[in-house]
Amino acid sequence: MSKATDERGRIYLPKDVRSRFGERYRIVELPSHVALFPVDEGPLEGLREAVGDAFEESEADELKQDARRAISEEIEAEDQERSENREA
């Protein structure tokens, strides 16, 4: 499917696309192109559907805390690796 932007830079998606994928999309800029990804109305419900019952007992706040903790640990590990590489 090919679409052009209007004078204000808008792209109109056909009704059948909107009815299949929804009204909200995330725009992702990649090195060679731009992609649209549908955004679930209930993102946690979409996640639960995708991963089954892995998060069945978890609340949104717990999931957010776990994600923040994991990201912080990754950043600390990367910082430590960079520091070690500079010293070597």
Name some characteristics of this structure.
mainly alpha; SpoVT-AbrB domain-containing protein; 50% helix; two-stranded antiparallel sheet
Task: Annotate the secondary structure layout.
Blueprint: H1 15-21, E1 25-29, E2 34-38, H2 43-51, H3 60-87
Antiparallel strand pairs: 1-2
* Assembly form of the protein: single chain
Structural class computed from helices and strand pairing: mainly alpha
Low-confidence stretches: none
The main pleated sheet reads as: 2 strands, antiparallel
**Widest sheet: strand order?**
1-2
Write up this protein.
This protein is mainly alpha-helical and 88 residues long. The chain has a domain at 1-39: Pemi-like Protein 1, Chain: D (Ribbon), CATH 2.10.260. Helices cover 50% and strands 11% of the residues. The protein has helices at residues 15-21, 43-51, 60-87; strands spanning 25-29, 34-38. The chain has a two-stranded antiparallel sheet with strand order 1-2. A hairpin with a 4-residue loop joins strand 1 (25-29) and strand 2. The longest helix is centred in the last third of the chain and has 28 residues, at 60-87. The chain is flat, with a radius of gyration of 20 Å. It starts with 14 loop residues before the first helix and ends with a helix. It comes from Haloferax mucosum ATCC BAA-1512. This is SpoVT-AbrB domain-containing protein. Residues 61-72 have a biased composition (Basic and acidic residues). Residues 56-88 are annotated as: Disordered.
